[in-house]
Amino acid sequence: MSIVEETLPRPRDDNPTLSAEPDLIRREREGLRDLLRIVAERASSETSVEETREAGEAAGEGEYQRAGSSLSEKIKALDEGAKTADEQRRRLIVDTAITGEAEAKSEFAKASRRIATEFDSLRQRASVDHQRDKTAAIAVSETGEREAAAHHAKARRPIDDTSKLIDSFRSRLDVLFESYRKFGLTEPTSVPTRETYQFDEPVNTLFDRLAKAEKPLAFLEALLIPKAMKGRRPIWLFVVAFLLVVGPLLLIFDAGLGSGLSLVAAIVIGFLLRSWLYGLAKTQVVQSIYPLFQSVIDAQALAAHCYGKVEDRTRAERARVSATREEALLQAKAKQSKSISTGEHVRDERLREINETYARRMVEIQTKQQVDLREAIDAHDHRKVELGAKAEAGVQKLEEKYRGLKEKVQTLYQSSWNEMSSRWREGIERVNTALAEIVSEVDAIGPKWDDLAWTERPPAGRVPQVVRFGEIAVRLDQLPGGIAKNPRLMEGVPTTFTFPALRPVSDRANLVIEAPAVGSATASGVLQSAMLRLFTSLPPGAVRFTIVDPIGIGRNFGAFMH
């Protein structure tokens, strides 16, 4: 923190001029107040002048609109009367034409209905005949479909029976395979043997194959050794071995040792017998089960082939039935189309004749209507021209009156605007003159730092009333109404007025600068500038500074400490 203490000769208490506000500061404040007053007066006058002009124009416009509305209503009434007469004449012409057209249309409609009724009767007969032929074709087709379905069911029946036998064989083989899987059997094949089915009766061949497979399957199911090795049945081998060796060993050794040796011998002999029997059982099963699985897979493939043959025959038979039905339906449709086509030709010829008669009658009616309407339109257009000329004359007279009123309002507006502009420019000129005088006197006390007068300026000989320490820019665009709405008022008028920032030279501190930490350097610069102004604006020895700078330890004020 820095404090500057200014030491000057203390003024006498009985001299009031030293404690009063300096003349320069008073004149500067009056100049600023004068500028604000001039700006406010110009803004108010500009608004008043514009509002007066707008009110005059609005009044003239209202009078113009009322007179125009009265003229328009009068012309409109005349025009409505002409329109009413024209509409009545046209309506009579149109009604006459409508009556004639209605009679022609009625005659045409009667003839058309008669022709349409006769054609509908012919089309109805053709539709009945077509429906009868179509029903017959569908009946024949349904009979053929039923016969094809019966043949299909009859052909599938023996194949279904063989499929059930194949499923039975496969179930029996699956049960055996699961029972003998512990012998180390590999999964059976699921791929049928490649062969060409060139049989006259493949179903009989399928039955023969199944009959041949029945005996090997029954043999496989009846094998004794594999059956004996199912589940926990091999335990009997250990029991028999124990019974065979326990007697002799008890005779040779005592009861405890004989029993133990008998148990060990029974286990060894039992495992050997079980391994041998497992191998023998696997050999017997493998020799039969895999050929049987292959036979069943081949039988399934042959059954699928038989199903395919039956389906092919059924599709061919149904296609033949469908083709026969479609041909019969096409013939029935062609017969119906021919009958309707002949009837349409006769109908169209008769319609052409009545259309020609109707068209000729309508042309005569419409020609007369157009001639009468043309005469009515010409008469109405002539009346409209007369009314238009009358309206144009009234509008021209009204426009001349309105133009004179606008010129009067514009003349009054221009006079008021010129007076306001003169006051505005005179006031700005007065402020500029006063400001120039103040700046000249301030420059004599302390010029700007960049002024060349410093090179030849002698030291101050007396204590001035004020000290310059900066400038204050007053911008018109920052004042309420400072910039005129009409740009002509701002021509040649400065938008910024620069007032010197002054402070009186007194016997006490009258300058405090507060700044945050980030602005301390800038505040220090301002303080140094104010100190330098005191040095250069006061006589030598008339000012003394007491600097308190505990943070900077005087570094910021080194230039003043020599």
Q: Which tags fit this structure?
A:
mainly alpha; 7 helices; 2 strands; 3% strand; disordered N terminus
Question: Can you describe this structure?
Answer:
The chain has 562 residues and is mostly helical. It starts with 15 loop residues before the first helix and ends in a 25-residue tail after the last helix. The model is unreliable at 1-18 (pLDDT under 50). The protein is 74% helix and 3% strand. The protein has helices at residues 16-19, 23-179, 202-222, 224-228, 235-252, 255-445, 520-537, and strands at residues 466-475, 496-504. 11% of the residues are buried. Strands 1-2 form a two-stranded antiparallel ribbon. Helix 2 packs antiparallel against helix 6 (255-445).
Strand order of the largest sheet: 1-2
Apparent shape: flat
Structural class: mainly alpha
| Poorly predicted spans | 1-18
Number of DSSP E strands: 2
Distance between the termini: 20 Å
Estimated share of beta-strand residues: under 5%
The run of helices and strands is: HHHHHHEEH
Number of helices: 7
Radius of gyration: 66 Å
User: Roughly what is the average pLDDT, rounded to an integer?
Assistant: 78
> What percent of residues adopt helix (DSSP H or I)?
over 70%
> Main β-sheet, in a few words?
2 strands, antiparallel
How do the helices and strands line up, and which of them pair or pack?
Layout: H1 16-19, H2 23-179, H3 202-222, H4 224-228, H5 235-252, H6 255-445, E1 466-475, E2 496-504, H7 520-537
Antiparallel strand pairs: 1-2
Give a concise summary.
With 562 residues, the protein is mainly alpha-helical. It is built from seven helices and two strands, in the order H-H-H-H-H-H-E-E-H. Helix 2 packs across helix 3 (202-222), helix 2 (23-179) packs antiparallel against helix 6 and helix 5 crosses helix 6 (255-445).
